[in-house]
# Entry
Amino acid sequence: MSVSPAVRLERFAAMLRARRFDETLIEHAEMVVGVFHVSIGMEATAAALALTRGSDDLVMLNHRNHGALQALGSDPEAMFREILGRDGGPQRGRGGSLHLCDPEHGVPYTSAMVAGGAALAVGMALARKRLGHQGIVFAFFGDGAMNEGAMHESLNLASLWRVPVLFVCESNTREAAERATATQAARSLHALAAVHQVAATAVDAADAGAITAAMGEAAAELRAGAGPRFLEARTPPWSGNAAFIPQLTTGRLDLSSGEDDAWVQADPILREMRAMTADGIATAELLAIDRAIDERMREAFERAAAAPLAPATHASEGVWA
Amino acid sequence: MSVSPAVRLERFAAMLRARRFDETLIEHAEMVVGVFHVSIGMEATAAALALTRGSDDLVMLNHRNHGALQALGSDPEAMFREILGRDGGPQRGRGGSLHLCDPEHGVPYTSAMVAGGAALAVGMALARKRLGHQGIVFAFFGDGAMNEGAMHESLNLASLWRVPVLFVCESNTREAAERATATQAARSLHALAAVHQVAATAVDAADAGAITAAMGEAAAELRAGAGPRFLEARTPPWSGNAAFIPQLTTGRLDLSSGEDDAWVQADPILREMRAMTADGIATAELLAIDRAIDERMREAFERAAAAPLAPATHASEGVWA
Amino acid sequence: MIATYHEARTRALERALADDPELLLLGGSLSLPFNPDDGLAARHPERILLPPISEFATAAAAVGASIAGLRTLVPVSTSSFLFYGFAPVVNEAANVRYLSGGASNAPVTFHMMCGSRRGGGAQHEHTLQAMFQNVPGLRVIAPGTPASVDGALHAALTGEDPTILIDHILLAPFDGELGEAPAAVTDPALVRDGGDAMLVSYSLMLQHCLAAAQLLAEDGLEVAVLEVATLAPLAVEELINATAGHERLVFVDESRAAGSPASHMLAQVAQARPQTHTRLVCTLDAPAPFATHLLDEILPTPARIAAATRALIAA
Amino acid sequence: MIATYHEARTRALERALADDPELLLLGGSLSLPFNPDDGLAARHPERILLPPISEFATAAAAVGASIAGLRTLVPVSTSSFLFYGFAPVVNEAANVRYLSGGASNAPVTFHMMCGSRRGGGAQHEHTLQAMFQNVPGLRVIAPGTPASVDGALHAALTGEDPTILIDHILLAPFDGELGEAPAAVTDPALVRDGGDAMLVSYSLMLQHCLAAAQLLAEDGLEVAVLEVATLAPLAVEELINATAGHERLVFVDESRAAGSPASHMLAQVAQARPQTHTRLVCTLDAPAPFATHLLDEILPTPARIAAATRALIAA
Ligand SMILES: Cc1ncc(C[n+]2csc(CCOP(=O)(O)OP(=O)(O)O)c2C)c(N)n1
Ligand SMILES: Cc1ncc(C[n+]2csc(CCOP(=O)(O)OP(=O)(O)O)c2C)c(N)n1
Ligand SMILES: [Mg+2]
Ligand SMILES: [Mg+2]
# Structure
């Protein structure tokens, strides 16, 4: 099932919000204390989430959360304020990049512990089911999380309880010989979910159409009352997708790039751009969308950087009710 | 590969040591403080361990450790002394039933945490491999341990490192509809090991011949340098195989039992007895072995019960080196 | 009325289940296997979900459910099992309100049996309150009387903080006054008065302090006993005021001394009021031995508490 | 010679790898990613095994290996990751010698970065020493100088106890005297003398105490600084003797006060010597905020330590 042209432009804009937010941040990395993680290469998955999420759905992210939040529509200025420790940051300067969340867009809390958020997601889905509330729960985590026993326990619980969780494993690592990854003896990551009788498939997450369709189908099954689902979202590994990004070259995307290096071929945004133009959408229209978004990110960053620091009282308020 | 008549009698004696030890304890349950767990129904697995273990091999057991230790040849009086808090208990009255161990028979320490010992076993096997020492490591644990993420992490580690661990899952639970157990969504317990590329099979652990052959083969492969192996030892669930045994009726085995109830049919000892007599071994010979072992257990218990309490100094000595 | 601790605990849980028709128990009974059955599993099977032996996922699911509006109570049973599920409690639940900037919170309760059940051995008789008190955001309550367990359960199951309810298997038979309405947790609470010294404690050791006070009374010594049920956040001012009348204070704790709630309480009082003569009576520095005659070598007993108090008064 | 803490740490580990050709590192570097590379991974790749992100199985494997004769050092990096592998450390390693009746032991070392690295936030800046000190059988060492990290690594990697090495990312650049031979851990150790008061601390806070002593010296106040590197088992007698000359003691700790090593030390001294005037300077009761200007609101700083000391002297 492919999407309408309007929705496709929406998806493209969501991907660009994710990318331009991170690039803007990388360009000012020296202003950020501590580490941050960017979502470059994961924009198609983020955009698919934005198209699939219903207003009653919850989303658990992880340390690499910028892209999904931008795709979902979180305010970039508020996020920059949080990352810069400025007043008006949604976490009051307590969380920074690692813990960005946005309840209005379905993200009530973000854990930076590997597998931490996915394990919480099972309980959120249990709540939805027992309270008879609408909505499913998306659990985003990386391939590394599959190393954690916590993921196995959580997959087993979700399967036993048949709660509406869509596990989305953003795998940005290369496969090793005979096994899923260098640290996973299993042949594939989705096999590790399937053994718990959680329906699991792998999808090319650099293909916006494929990941949108796969996530949409899985979500529809969950809404129809099926048990949990697992998507192995195979994401092109971008050299910068490591922690400690401050040392990183920007990798700023040039939409008009004619180059032909591996990354340009793999980049989900450029792939979708090529596909859209091949499908007859005018390049100028796409460049205009990009310029507007890029402009918005730069302005958001400037306003955030000019804002006062978060008030000192935020440090120790409200630890206990 | 079936065993010689002499070895078969040895195996039968090992099974009886395991059974008679527990029955003797159950008959004096009121003298035991705290809980204990008996190995009734698991004697064939225990005896297979005794026949398979080489002098350089290590064994990690769990809370249900009596049977394996008796089969391996541990001194019943010493074990009773430990369980009764008497002087001369190998753990100095600190461990009791839950933590019985016996380094001389390859059991350096016993954890009572579910999956605790199996996780340690992987490191012991890593030590064997890196130090170039002979010997493999047996990790005994129950079906419930497969609920723990720790088991998945340990199976993955053992598989990645190709260390010589033989995982023996003593499954004494009934299968649930469509799944391995009431608490495991997977179709089988050995599938949970196989997904980590650990060669895994299930075997009827009430069939002394079958479990001896399966364990022997797996151990031989490990000694030949193969990666880890996993045996799902399907054990007949005996009603008494729960904690809090003190409330339990003894279930003392009557070797000459002609009855035909389900347990008599399932009992690994009676099964082997029937098979041996069918193979022409004289019942009288088997009864004589049993009488001697039963006698030995009763005497061991009496001597232990008559011994003085462990000295008070054992309480807080040697906590730090 | 007079009720046992076990009766008060059962009544409080029954009341909570009635008051909050959504409250979920993720795990079996609060009392079994080592206390009399509270009958809740039989009366409210639909309120109970029995998880696999997966402490991490179970704890995390409870925290997640509470974030999503389903208040959950996790009967951990033996506290040390939660070492397998430590991260969701100390590094997720405790941080939800703080890290979400106040947008979310996790009103989840973990109930666990701490201290020695006698015969459980080194891996089953921990006092996790010592560790949990150090985690900002966790409310840690360790009641020692029927009235305080009533208040503790009410506070935990109606409050907004992730709460650790420190219980003790050996408290079940102790009886005391119990009002009709849910009691409020008042910290600290004077349980017995006396002018020669004051004993400060919580959970089972509070009962041992009362027994020690009896022993001392037989020698003509009148000692007060103060209960501090809420270990975190500790009501420091109130503790300092409640102990103000006494020059001799004995802090009693089943935890090992290093990092114990008692040594923290002692430190707070000593800092505020030098010249106070204090004693710490804790479990000696060893794991819990299985044999009970060895266990009694390391645990604080009424006799040991009384002896320390006599020595302090004599000093 | 004069060396930085980072140099001393690297030298001590190099020495240990040379002295014990079997010693295995189960995990990457002791210093990366937040400190300069110690180059060990490059120089001794065969001594390092990089595990998956499986803290439980990794910790358990290290404990098991040490029981089976392979001494193992686990570089945990950020201490809170070990909450996922807590059970094998606190409920296995700590009990091996005790529960085996002395037949076995687990000479394993867990090295971790505790306290605030600044910008790590609430889930990455814990002080696990507060919890580990409460576990009998674990040796907990938290060095604060080049000489003491040298001694701490030597003690951990040649000793017979499961050892927790509490390190701090911000200690790397501090320098001090370093002898040729491996230093012995001497607890406590007087690092600076002075008669107006004594500051007692460990790890990074020891350096903050020395900085505070400088600030106070500028006001003409001479304060002593005492390092207590071994937090468990705490050398109680020695601590009481080493502080005996002082009526004014300030205990400084990056842990939250409840359950902190500092409050335990204060309690031990107060119990032994009432009349001592004491202050506790700890991190305030909040998780670590991400923004560093907020972090400085809750952490003990040299200025805050100096202010508390002035107030104590003035009182
Ligand atoms: C329990 C835990 N262990 C270790 C870490 C440190 N850590 C942060 S990100 C990361 C890598 C995670 O890899 P993956 O899940 O694939 O996510 P990616 O960064 O590749 O998107 C690690 C090990 C952590 N945050 N939590
Ligand atoms: C980590 C942990 N959680 C819970 C327990 C409590 N417990 C003791 S035995 C047991 C059942 C274990 O079942 P299984 O592994 O199948 O062993 P079995 O008793 O059936 O032989 C449980 C849950 C424990 N000892 N450790
Ligand atoms: Mg990854
Ligand atoms: Mg079982």
Summary: The longest strand of chain C covers residues 248-256.
